[in-house]
Amino acid sequence: MTYTIHHESIEHRTPLFIVKRVDLSLPDGKPRVLDLIEIQNAVTILPLDSEGYIHFVKQYRIGARSELLELPAGKIENNEDPLQTAQRELREEIGMSASSWRALGNFYLSPGYASEYMYGFLAQDLVPDPLAPDADEFLNIIKVSLPDALAMVRRGEIQDSKTLAVLMLAHPLLP
């Protein structure tokens, strides 16, 4: 199937993302106009301590209009390597660094309307190593055992898509 993009124009620009109008042809030749949110790629980290606890953050999310329990995550800045971003975000969000890192897999968050691509990582052998958090982040760190985290998933208590995806990618690798 062939989709042909004929024209793209910027409709709106914010510090976080750009909204584009994309004119394209569908495989049957019919024209279609779609909106595309172009946004930085990002990382999500599953930090697992030596006692078997996963370090989550709880923070307010405007899209949910409530606080969500999430794995630490953040945007890739200034052409950073995704692992460098993950290492920085772990220090900023939970005040820890890790000596053991494993790439878990990559995925699109909402490819029907956004370009954001996510890199998932498992971080182990955690040690205190804080960096100052972003000025607009108000995070509560919550440690949860793997069995309790999986039970929370089954009960629908974890509703953040990147957290669900990275938990499922990591699950076969965890004790």
Structure report:
- It is a single chain.
- The model has no long low-confidence stretch (mean pLDDT 95).
- The chain folds into two domains: 4-39, no CATH class; 42-106 and 128-173, Nucleoside Triphosphate Pyrophosphohydrolase.
- The protein has three helices and ten strands, in the order βββββββαβββαα.
- The protein starts with a strand and ends in a 5-residue tail after the last helix.
- The radius of gyration is 18 Å and the shape is elongated.
- It is an alpha+beta fold.
- The strands form three sheets. It has a four-stranded mixed beta sheet with strand order 7-4-9-8, with helices on both faces.
Key structural traits:
single chain, 175 residues, alpha+beta, Nucleoside Triphosphate Pyrophosphohydrolase, 2 domains, four-stranded mixed sheet, three-stranded antiparallel sheet, 3 helices, 10 strands, 47% strand, elongated
Summarize this, please?
Helices cover 18% and strands 47% of the residues. It is of the alpha+beta class.
- Level-2 CATH architecture of the largest domain: Alpha-Beta Complex
Annotation, overall tally of beta strands? 10
Helix proportion? 10-25%
Identify the CATH homologous superfamily of the largest domain. Nucleoside Triphosphate Pyrophosphohydrolase
CATH topology type of the largest domain: Nucleoside Triphosphate Pyrophosphohydrolase
Text of the CATH class of the largest domain:
Alpha Beta
Amino- and carboxy-terminal Cα gap: 43 Å
As laid out across the biggest beta sheet, the strand order is: 7-4-9-8
Number of domains: 2
Number of continuous helical runs: 3
Largest sheet: 4 strands, mixed
What class, by secondary structure content?
A: alpha+beta
**Strand percent estimate:** over 45%
